[in-house]
Design goal:
This protein is of the alpha/beta class. It is built from nine helices and seven strands. It has helices at residues 2-21, 23-28, 33-45, 57-70, 84-96, 107-120, 133-139, 156-163, 185-195, and strands at residues 74-78, 99-104, 126-130, 144-149, 167-176, 200-205, 211-216.
Length: 220
């Protein structure tokens, strides 16, 4: 009986530790080794082909990690380009049980991205829309728990203002090509604005192309 009690006690401690470290989220991820290998091979085969306004791989990996860590499920990408960032985002969402809506205004980039999503095996996790993000971001309903903004930089602040009411508390808003040195008028104005909001905590990761990471907190 004592042995059983000790075992039960240790089990409870293990569960408590898992909750505190977030490892239960990782354990609940949907594993698909076949899909993982297909995505890895696609990314490896295309590693030198992402020329058209796509993120570097280090930023793609960061987006993937943020989604896995936050267990996010409803993502919006503003600016698909030819799909590099969308592949990283959708790959993470395939593990959390989520889906990505991604928007691009250019028909050529949209078609290329659709083909890339198909070849990577991720089409079922992506709703790719050919549209003007200036209009669609206003109209789209949400809610979202993860947003990646990588379209026209002068519109970053406007995109954020339109998305903010649709981003849940605990959600994450990320934006590309952000510098702490204030480079780029649109990016600088966006960064200044979001840092002024008391219900957002913002950091900037400079390891790749510069990625701002803003977590939405409850209003006090």
């Amino acid at each position: 009986m004592k042995t059983r009690n000790i075992t039960a006690f240790l089990f409870c401690l293990a569960i408590t530790a898992s909750i505190s470290t977030g490892s239960l989220i990782a354990q609940s991820s949907k594993e698909n080794p076949v899909l993982d290998e297909k995505v890895k091979k696609f990314l490896s085969d295309h590693s030198r082909r992402w020329y058209d306004m796509n993120v570097p791989s280090v930023d793609g990996q960061l987006l993937y990690d943020l989604i896995i860590k936050g267990n996010y499920k409803s993502a919006l990408e503003i600016g698909t380009s030819t799909g590099h960032s969308g592949i990283w985002i959708a790959w993470a969402l395939s593990k959390t049980g989520g889906k990505l809506i991604t928007i691009d205004i250019d028909e050529g980039r949209h078609k290329t991205a659709m083909e890339n999503f198909k070849q990577a095996g991720l089409s079922e996790y992506i709703d790719a829309r050919l549209a003007d993000a200036h209009l669609l971001v206003k109209e789209i309903k949400g809610p979202f728990d993860f947003v990646f903004s990588d379209a026209d930089k002068d519109w970053y602040k406007n995109y954020f203002i339109d998305v903010d009411p649709k981003l849940i508390v605990g959600g994450c808003f990320t934006a590309h090509n952000i510098s702490t040195r204030g480079g780029g008028y649109g990016q600088a104005a966006f960064l200044e604005y979001i840092r002024s909001l008391k219900n957002y905590e913002t950091t900037v990761n400079t390891s790749g192309g510069g990625l701002s990471i803003s977590y939405k907190r409850a209003q006090k």
